Amino acid sequence: MIFVDTHAHLGDPQFDADRDSIFERAAAAGVTRIVEIADHPDEWARAVALARARPDNARCTLGLHPYYADLYDDAFLSKLRAALNATPEAVAIGEIGLDYAKATVPHDAQRRAFEKIAAAAKSWGVPIVVHCRDAYPDLVPMLQKIFPERPVANRFWGVIHCFTGTPENAEACSNLGFALGADGPVTYKKNDALREAFRRAGPEAAVLETDSPYLPPQSMRGKRNEPASILEIAAKLAEVWGVPLDEVARRTSANAAALYRWP
Predict the structure, then answer these.
(1) Which of 191, 260, 250 is nearest to 30 (CA)?
(2) Tens digit of each residue's pLDDT (9 = 90 or more) over 230-256
(3) What CA–CA distance (Å, rounded) separates 35 from 259?
(4) How far apart are CA 139 and CA 145, in angstroms?
(5) What is the C-alpha separation between 4 and 57, in angstroms, rounded?
């Protein structure tokens, strides 16, 4: 079975002592592709270097997390476009989005940055990685405004990273043409509503993520997460959908390839 971790932060200092081992354990677990997320301009070069060092196994994204949305200005888009043009390893813009739970940036500034960057990404033909915490009532209408129709040339406009919304949110986002990222929280004992959201959306909309070193699955709560834990997330989705594990691997890996246009 082949799995793809579509969202990880392996450039994090928590991995400085054993980064190569992390990739080795991932490969042993069948996780043969990993997408490194750079969500601040200061992290872009590190993410690119990580992807270039592992051309068969890694790609990266370049973004501006809502934590840093106050850094957005008109010059940012020029900087982002230039970085994307110079980086064939970059497969998406992100993560970008809205965070009303922890971000200290005012909500209106977050919305402005997200709308500008997402609209630019659409015009450039680049998928987006969307972060959303406690903000689905604002996010969904914004997505409907920017992406009123499903994409024609590709299956997905982007992905809702670590989807934690309601079943109704899941249906709305997937109907617009967004993949839904399944992370450790889908394995947590009390998250029946989240599992119902993925059940309704179905395997055609899901991709697997770890968000390493964050969001470990149930068996690793309190520990550092890593891409090898994809297996536990996939196993839980197999239960939710009532399909074999190898079917989850096949469907989510195909979705990941379509999302990031990484054949």
Answers:
(1) 250
(2) 999 999 999 999 999 999 999 999 999
(3) 11
(4) 10
(5) 9
Asked if 114 and 96 count as a contact pair (C-beta separation under 8 A), the reply is yes
How buried is 12 (Cβ within 10 angstroms: 0-12 exposed, 13-18 middle, 19+ buried)? middle
Distance CA 80, CA 207 (A): 25
Residues 6+ apart with CB under 8 A from 190: none
Amino acid identity, position 250: R
Q: How far is CA 190 from CA 167, 185, 187, 193, 194, in A?
A: 15, 9, 9, 8, 9
Q: Which residues of 201-229 are buried (b: 16+ CB within 10 A; e: fewer)?
A: bebebbbbbbbbbbbbbbebeeeebbbbb
Whole-angstrom Cα distance, residue 229 to residue 226? 6
pTM above 0.90, yes or no: yes
Asked if the model's pLDDT at residue 225 lies above 90, the reply is yes
Q: Is 257 exposed, middle or buried (0-12, 13-18, 19+ CB in 10 A)?
A: middle
Residue 217: predicted pLDDT = 98
- Cβ(7)–Cβ(39) below 8 Å: no
Q: What is the pLDDT of residues 58-84, one digit of tens each?
A: 999 999 999 999 999 989 999 999 999
Give the number of other Cβ atoms within 10 Å of residue 45's Cβ: 14
Q: Residue with structure tokens 């354990």?
A: 25
The fold adopted by the segment(s) 3-260 is TIM Barrel (3.20.20)
- What are the structural domain ranges in the chain? 3-260
Of 158, 107, 157, nearest to 135 (Cα)?
107
* Residue given tokens 């969202």 in the structure block: 7
Cα diameter, the chain: 48
- pLDDT at residue 240, rounded to an integer: 98
